Amino acid sequence: MRGVIAIEEATIDPGSVSTIGETIKCLIPGLVDIDAATASHAKRLLDLHEDRLRIMDEQGVEYMLLAHTSPGCQGQTDPQVAEQMADRSNKWLSEQVKINPTRFGALAALSMHDPFQAGNELRRAVQELGFFGGLVNDYQSTGSDGSGRAYYDTIDYDPFWKVVEELDVPIYFHPRYPPPPDLASDAPQYGKRGHLLGAGVQFHLDLSWHIYSLCSGGVFDRFPKVQIVVGHLGENIPFNLHRADHWLNMPHKQSSRPCKYDYTYYFKHNVHITTSGNFFTQGLKLCVELLGVDRVQFAIDTPYEKTEEGMEWWRSVTFDGSDGEKIKDDIARGNAIRVFRLPLKL
Predict the structure, then answer these.
(1) How wide is the angle at C-alpha 117 spanned by C-alphas 174 and 45, nearest 5°?
(2) Disulfide engineering: 68 pairs with which of 109, 137, 191, 271, CB 3.0-4.6 Å?
């Protein structure tokens, strides 16, 4: 079967199911029976070899890259608990992939409390478990109440990025809901604005800030071979690149900014984007025009988006010109095979 490759597809190990209750409260506001909803959501996440695979066959999805669902390790404030979750999740997922390696691959879950430990876990996952990279769910929650946030653009995380560069594997950046203190009814931002949480608004606002910070903070100057992947058409950053570059390139900014180049440069050299959950044809074409087709890959965002909906949209997408079919094929599969070095035929 030669079909599309979807690279931002969620799952969860059985031992972590109990951690998704907070996500359910945000995902389905006003829900009364949290336990039933959690069980239903867990069933969708855990299902790899039955309904998910059947729908993949029906819809022409050849291969999925799987990763631990958000917030995963990034939602665990205790470093030891987060590290144990990563270890357990990666071992479980490696066993699932072994059941059907021609249809599934994996990205490693990583605790980001300790950059040295994160690098070691990534190395283990890639070299021993056969994973094709890692996935982090935005910032790492820290502190006893979860209100602390660790971002990965500081020099403290250089040991992690050094390992990423040595292994030459991508790191996928995925959004997450805010920690519990930010969800309290008296929280200043989202306490009275729960309707803004999640994929519609809050996800791209939070994660785009992190991506801007990585680009402008000098990470890619110190580690120029590092590649990251950002879903949902780059969390809307491509649509703001002109304005962001305009101000970053101002003379008074250039003299003090910690990066050598502007955002567009890094998006063309260090950042890849995907279509996950943002089935927007005009936006996709703008991204291809701005960044180049080699920087764009296909994803669905299973099970948060329906595979059927994503594939119905993808079948409707066309690109003009004599190379239109090649552009579509590169986005659908070729780029993922090259960037993640997947064991599939181009």
Answers:
(1) 35
(2) 109
Q: Which residues pair with 171 in a beta bridge?
A: 134, 228
| DSSP state for residue 197 in the 8-state scheme | -
Sign for the pseudo-dihedral over CA of 306, 307, 310, 312? negative
- Reply yes or no on whether the pLDDT at 30 is more than 80: no
CATH code for the domain defined by 4-340: 3.20.20.140
How are beta strands 4-11 and 296-297 bridged, if at all?
unpaired
Q: Domain map of the chain by residue range?
A: 4-340
The string of pLDDT tens digits covering residues 285-342 is 999 999 999 999 999 999 999 999 999 999 999 999 999 999 999 999 999 999 999 9
Check the CA dihedral 136-97-37-57 and report its sign: positive
73 is catalytic: no
pTM over 0.90: yes
How many residues would you count in the chain? 346
**Are 229 and 297 contacting, i.e. CB atoms less than 8 angstroms apart?**
yes
